[in-house]
Automatic annotation (TrEMBL):
GO cellular component term of the entry, any: cytoplasm
Entry similarity comment: Belongs to the DTD family.
Domain notes: A Gly-cisPro motif from one monomer fits into the active site of the other monomer to allow specific chiral rejection of L-amino acids.
Locations listed in the record: Cytoplasm
Main EC class the enzyme belongs to: hydrolase
Organism (species): Acinetobacter indicus CIP 110367
PANTHER family listed in its UniProt record: D-AMINOACYL-TRNA DEACYLASE 1, D-TYROSYL-TRNA TYR DEACYLASE
Single GO MF annotation: Gly-tRNA(Ala) deacylase activity
Name of this chain's protein: D-aminoacyl-tRNA deacylase
Keywords linked to the UniProt accession: Cytoplasm, Hydrolase, RNA-binding, tRNA-binding
Annotated coiled-coil segments of the chain: none
GO biological process entries: D-amino acid catabolic process
Quaternary state and interactors: Homodimer.
Reaction(s) this enzyme catalyzes, per UniProt: glycyl-tRNA(Ala) + H2O = tRNA(Ala) + glycine + H(+); a D-aminoacyl-tRNA + H2O = a tRNA + a D-alpha-amino acid + H(+)
Length: 161
């Protein structure tokens, strides 16, 4: 069935997404309380699709940790978050999985169902913390207020098949 769909539609269903923002500082506030906070580092908005799994998620976390978008001694994007001495703030965001090509309202059909997404998100947070010491988070499915000071601005979208 998927083979008969246009390639852009198929990609919506098979790619885990992360929107990375290089920040000078970032925090998540839920009901007036800070749930996660970093200074210099990466704010990661993570979108989980119906076909995503722990193996894809681990590949994405590994890529985020190795991705070089911090300035090195020559002022080029040569350092990853560890080399730059930064932290990671990991925030679930199902809206990254929305289809927006048609109409005036986003279609969240490609997003993973909430119960399944929470389980996978929790596993990915555990994995990230096992790979990197400074990982903070928001609260899954909460009404989060995300505060950030974007550095650059530098923003990238990563996808894993």
């Amino acid at each position: 069935m998927l083979q008969s769909l246009p390639i852009n539609t198929v990609r919506q269903f098979i790619r885990m997404r992360a929107l990375l923002q290089r920040v000078l500082e970032a925090k998540v506030v839920v009901e007036g309380e800070v749930t996660g906070q970093i200074q210099h580092g990466i704010l990661v908005f993570l979108g989980l699709g119906k076909d995503d799994n722990l193996d894809k998620g681990k590949k994405l976390i590994d890529k985020i940790l190795k991705y070089r978008f911090f300035d090195d001694e020559q002022g080029k994007m040569g350092w990853n978050v560890s080399q730059a001495g930064g932290g990671i703030l990991l925030v679930s965001q199902f809206t990254l999985m929305a289809q927006t090509q048609k109409g005036l309202r986003p279609d969240f059909g490609p997003a993973m169902p909430p119960a399944q997404a929470k389980e996978l998100y929790d596993q990915l947070v555990d994995y990230a913390k096992s790979q990197f010491a400074q990982v903070e988070t928001g609260i899954f499915a909460a009404d989060m207020k995300v505060h950030l000071v974007n550095d650059g601005p530098v923003t990238f979208q990563l996808e894993i098949e």
